[in-house]
Amino acid sequence: MKMLRSIGKWTVRQAQGLSRLLAVAWSALAAAVRPQFWPSPVRNVLARQILFTGYEASRFISLIAVLVGLAVVLQAQVALAKLGQSSLLGPILVMVIIREIGPLLTNFIVIGRSGTAMTTELANMKVNGEVELLDAQGLDPFLYLVLPRVLGAALSIFCLTVIFITVSFLSGFFSGMLLGANTGNPEAFIRSIFGAVSKADVFNLILKSFVPGLLMGSICCIEGLSVGAAITEVPQAATRAVVKSTAALFITSALVSLVTYL
Predict the structure, then answer these.
(1) What is the pLDDT of residue 105?
(2) For helices 40-50 and 147-178, what crossing angle results, to 10°?
(3) What does residue 38 show for φ and ψ, rounded to 5 degrees?
(4) Domain parsing of the chain, residue ranges
(5) Which of 97, 98, 92 is closest to 77 using CA atoms?
(6) pLDDT less than 50: residues of the chain
């Protein structure tokens, strides 16, 4: 009975956490389409969030994409050319880069770089009483703190994923040309990639980049604002946010793949 009671308590806690997460994410999406929820302070926070999460991370994302291009795209071109199967280049790269590696690596980088920072910032604000001060000044903490961070994270991850995929393809192809590999001409390479992309792949890319970003932003905000008065709770909240965001990323990616391709 004790084991059943423990399992029941754990299940109830997980269900409550999931419902809270979905409520925050849905509320952010619902508020985003209403102009009255976008006063100047909220727009400024959104712009700063996109600047930090998206623009400032673009160089590191591009660097990782270059390395992925050298490790995956270049090797795929050389191996398939040796085997006389260059026609399979587009489908293989779409399956590996667009469907899986691009969204996953981009989300991982943003979770580690911006997710922890977002959680720590909100947790420190909660500990220092700044959240209550905003409420006392007539600013809704959800609109000012949660909404721009959730949407900023989702939009940034989507744009960074597109950048990652583009840079990895270009770096892989042009590095092959510089190294003298038999990579063909650029027109044939681009045609093979676009010819292998289907509507399902576009649907998959959007969902695997935007939805995990939306959930990551919601999780980080929930964990950051859930701390009490002790400063020692801040790193614990950041750790929980990273773990839960990573779990949400893998679960979402698996579900999207099942819905899209099965």
Answers:
(1) 93
(2) 30
(3) -120, 60
(4) 43-261
(5) 92
(6) none
